[in-house]
Amino acid sequence: MKALHTSKKPQKCQQILMDMQGIILDSSDTIFAVERHRPLTEWSHFLASILPTLNNLKLDSPEIYFPNIDTLGESLSGLYDCSFISAEWEEGKLVLVWNILDLTKSESLLKRRQQKSQDRIIEEQLALPKKNLAPPKAARN
């Protein structure tokens, strides 16, 4: 299977193998556990919204990439990069491979760093001498 490549350092990666109707055939379960032989569309509105497009994928179709998805399914919010490719499985059956990168921890770290930087800028601005904000003398008339 083709892996999703990104310049970001992922915390976890999961692959889900499903048929063209979104029924789970297999999963690595590294981010969340899924019940095999159930439709992913039951709990993932994201997948339900894009499944008609994914059904058009052919074996030689390019990977479809969705960066920065904030909710994959019920009670599964965070930050995820997702990609989909088609692959040949048992007896030549065409299936979908859903690659999921969990970037939630990286996002939280980035937000904390940004907040510290912004706090430092505010502190520096507050430490500056106060300027006279009165309008110039010519404008007072």
Q: Can you tag this structure with a few keywords?
A:
2 helices, alpha+beta, 5 strands, disordered N terminus
Brief summary:
This protein is an alpha+beta fold. It has two helices and five strands. The N and C termini lie far apart (76 Å).
Description:
With 141 residues, this protein is an alpha+beta fold. The chain is built from two helices and five strands; from the N terminus they run E-E-H-E-E-E-H. Strands 2-1-5-4-3 form a five-stranded antiparallel sheet, with helices on both faces. It is elongated and about 85 Å long. The model is unreliable at 1-10 (pLDDT under 50).
Topology:
Layout: E1 12-18, E2 24-27, H1 45-54, E3 64-73, E4 76-88, E5 94-102, H2 104-127
- Into which percentage range does the β-strand content fall? 25-35%
Numbering strands along the chain, what is their spatial order in the largest sheet? 2-1-5-4-3
Question: Looking at the structure, what is the overall shape?
Answer: elongated
Structural class: alpha+beta
Spatial separation of the terminal alpha carbons: 76 Å
Based on CA atoms alone, the radius of gyration comes out at 24 Å
Mean pLDDT: 80
The topology string of helices and strands comes to EEHEEEH
Low-confidence stretches: 1-10
How many helical elements? 2
Q: Roughly how much helix do the residues carry, as a percent range?
A: 10-25%
The count of strands amounts to 5
Q: Tell me the major beta sheet.
A: 5 strands, antiparallel
